[in-house]
Specification:
CATH superfamily of the largest domain: FAD/NAD(P)-binding domain
Order of helices and strands: HEHEHHEEEEEEEHEHHHEEEEEEEEH
Bound molecules: flavin-adenine dinucleotide
Number of domains: 2
Distance between the termini: 87 Å
Radius of gyration: 26 Å
Length: 412
């Protein structure tokens, strides 16, 4: 055969294509091999806060193969990242997870860093398989398995627990961007201390527990302080006084929040949507504390006028700082599964996804009870979800007694 330059190029091209195809085959083979080598776990838990660690504790007791993934660098960081002066409003007797009491006197109110360290110690004590620095970007289904994608890593499991409170992403109105650039504004998630603020007035938008706590701090630091928004009510006793610490708070949290206000009781079902939309009552700070500290109440903030916050009563407020205590959203856009209703709400019953067998949630506000997003309440939900998982995987819960430590001083 006579070969000219064209024929040679064609031959080269054919060789290149064959080479390329072979290379593709090799890479396909190697990714198939990788896939077949990839371990399919029983369960992946997403989130290693109190909710994820509680689920992990019960999964370990049930003898299941699992891992816990968390975006943060250290277990406990969601507490460490909150404002510097934050102390828990629940005393230590209400701050223990299953199997390991909080290391302080029962009537002591821990700092946020002590809580963070307790969680880190909890994960280490029970040798829970936590992988930190892993931000889940997509959760989807492939074949019969759930796939969790984080950067270029993939994890697979038969079942998934999304274990986190709904406080992941700041929620603030779109008109916030219209505030004058002279005003220092931030969400409560970014607030650390008054050192971040300009001299002058501070407006807290949102009158829940965070707004009330931060308002007390800014007022004490010499800022004229206003707090806007409807009252969420307040509990009728002082948590820090002897009776409050020893009797009333444990009674309220263990009996009312944990037993009475659940999705199983008529009163619980009535209260649930109110708590989910309006927030919990003030626990530590009372309206009269705010008044005594000189904090002024104003109506809701409904927009911006000439760069200043506009109130519902038509007035504008001239302040140097605005702190949005307007709540959070779960930020579940990474869940690529049909688990959301028309209004974007999660469709689940007591944490069990309605249309997605094998997917569970733990830690959300009033998931099962008023206590579900609180430290003393999350363990019961975790235990119940793990029981459901064990049943569906055909294993029985409590298969190992490696964690037979005294329960954390509370009943289920
Ligand atoms: C200011 C404040 C004070 C509170 N004080 C109390 C109190 O005194 N007592 C009480 O009982 N409760 C209190 N709570 C309520 C509750 O106990 C806390 O919010 C607690 O942090 C909830 O724990 P969690 O594990 O459910 O969620 P989180 O603590 O929010 O932990 C969720 C974890 O999931 C991880 N995560 C989120 N998204 C991803 C992702 N895509 N990929 C990987 N990881 C991810 C995060 O990094 C985080 O570590 C308070 C809440 C707030 C906001």
């Amino acid at each position: 055969m006579e070969m000219n330059a064209g024929t040679i190029n064609e031959l080269n091209a054919t060789a290149l294509v064959e080479e390329g195809t072979a290379a593709m085959r090799l890479s396909e083979l190697s990714s198939r091999q990788k896939a077949s080598r990839r371990e399919v776990l029983d369960v992946i838990v997403i989130g290693a806060g109190q909710a994820g660690l509680s689920v992990g504790y019960h999964l370990a007791r049930a003898g299941l193969r699992f891992t816990i993934l968390d975006a943060n660098e250290r277990v406990g960081d969601s507490w460490r990242q909150r404002w510097d002066s934050l102390r828990l409003f629940t005393s230590a007797r209400l701050d223990s997870l299953d199997g390991k009491p909080f290391p302080a006197a029962g009537d002591y109110f821990p700092t946020k860093d002590e809580m963070a360290d307790y969680l880190e110690g909890y994960a280490a004590h029970f040798q829970l398989p936590v992988q930190t620095g892993v931000k889940v970007e997509r959760l989807f289904k492939r074949g019969g398995h759930y796939v969790v994608k984080a950067g270029d890593r993939e994890f697979e499991a038969l079942q998934i627990v999304v274990a986190m409170a709904g406080y992941q992403e700041p929620s603030l109105p779109a008109f916030a961007s219209g505030l004058s650039t002279d005003i220092v504004q931030m969400h409560s998630k970014a607030y650390r201390n008054p050192g971040q603020l300009k001299p002058g007035g501070v407006l807290l938008v949102g009158a829940g527990n965070s707004g009330a706590d931060i308002a007390m701090e800014t007022a004490r630091n010499g800022h004229d302080t206003w707090i806007a928004g409807p009252s969420t009510g307040s509990i009728p006793f002082r948590t820090e006084r002897f009776l409050g610490r020893m009797v009333l708070q444990p009674l309220l949290l263990r009996l009312v929040f944990h037993r009475l206000l659940t999705i199983k009781t008529p009163i619980g079902r009535k209260v649930r949507p109110i708590i989910q939309s309006k927030g919990a009552p003030l626990i530590r700070v009372k309206p009269k504390d705010l008044a005594a500290a000189g904090v002024r109440r104003v109506s809701r903030v409904i927009g911006v006028q000439d760069g200043q916050p506009l109130l519902e009563d038509g007035k504008t407020l001239f302040v140097s700082n605005v702190i949005w205590c307007s709540g959070f959203q779960p930020g579940f856009e990474w869940i690529d599964l049909p688990v959301f209703g028309k209004a974007g709400e999660l469709l689940h019953r007591g944490g069990i996804a309605e249309k997605q067998p094998g997917l569970y949630f733990v830690g959300l506000t009033f998931l099962y009870a008023m206590s579900s997003s609180m430290i003393h309440g999350v363990g019961r939900d975790a235990a119940r979800i793990v029981k459901t998982i064990s049943a569906s995987l055909g294993t029985s819960s409590n298969t190992t007694d490696a964690f037979a430590v005294a329960p954390a001083g509370r009943s289920r």
